[in-house]
């Protein structure tokens, strides 16, 4: 994430152990830091219609801690690009919305029948987001970056991104 300390490999969670990377690094070794990972329910991994990525919020601006800064409109506007490298390509994403949610009451959906269903789902999320920078249409694919935040005992900051216009498929 240019302009932040976030620069880590993202791994894919596995259905047989969905929380494994909360306590293990990208190489599978035990680690209190864990590793940023794509939700195990995202059946197509980084090519899922909505790839949900989790990472710990650790002190010292490590792991996904800088995501919390996106809850400031000024920061979000000044840090719109999130870059991901896969084995095949570089993808520039553009932040379009940020929300701080209560994980106890917020539901997630990771599988969609088509792009229209994803647009409807994200449209509902956008209607409740704290910061909306754009109201894009045709969001497929989209990603969400999620970390703990401490507004309440179970809050999460969620940064929603979609392909920048330069990489639209």
Overall pLDDT = 87
> How many DSSP E strands?
10
Distance between the termini: 21 Å
- Rounded Rg: 15 Å
Tell me the β content: 25-35%
- The sequence of SSEs as H and E is EEEEEHEEHEEE
Helix content: 10-25%
The tally of helices reads 2
Basic shape: globular
Low-confidence stretches: none
| Class computed from helices, strands and strand pairing | mainly beta
How would you characterize the largest beta sheet? 8 strands, mixed
Question: How would you characterize this protein structure?
Answer:
The chain is mainly beta. It is built from two helices and ten strands. Strands 1, 2, 3, 6, 7, 8, 9 and 10 form an eight-stranded mixed β-sheet that branches.
List the keywords.
169 residues, mainly beta, eight-stranded mixed sheet, two-stranded antiparallel ribbon, globular
SSE order and pairing:
Blueprint: E1 11-12, E2 37-38, E3 50-54, E4 57-58, E5 62-63, H1 73-78, E6 81-85, E7 90-102, H2 115-126, E8 131-132, E9 142-149, E10 155-163
Parallel strand pairs: 1-2, 3-9
Antiparallel strand pairs: 2-3, 4-5, 6-7, 7-8, 7-10, 9-10
Overview in brief:
This protein is mainly beta and 169 residues long. The chain contains two helices and ten strands; from the N terminus they run βββββαββαβββ.
């Amino acid at each position: 994430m240019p302009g932040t300390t976030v620069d880590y490999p993202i791994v894919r969670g596995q259905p047989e152990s969905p929380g494994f990377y909360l306590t293990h690094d990208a190489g599978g070794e035990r680690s209190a830091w864990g590793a940023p990972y794509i939700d195990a329910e995202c059946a197509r991994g980084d090519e899922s219609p909505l790839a949900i990525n989790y990472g710990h919020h650790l002190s010292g601006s490590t792991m996904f801690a800088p995501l919390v800064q996106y809850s400031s409109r000024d920061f979000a506007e000044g840090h719109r690009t999130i870059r991901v490298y896969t084995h095949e390509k570089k993808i520039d994403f553009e932040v379009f919305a940020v929300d701080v949610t209560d994980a106890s009451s917020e539901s997630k959906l990771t599988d969609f029948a088509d792009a229209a269903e994803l647009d409807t789902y994200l449209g509902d999320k956008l209607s409740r987001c704290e910061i909306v920078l754009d109201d894009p249409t045709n969001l497929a694919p989209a990603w969400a970056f999620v970390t703990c935040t401490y507004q309440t005992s179970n809050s999460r900051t969620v940064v929603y991104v979609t392909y920048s216009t330069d990489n639209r498929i």
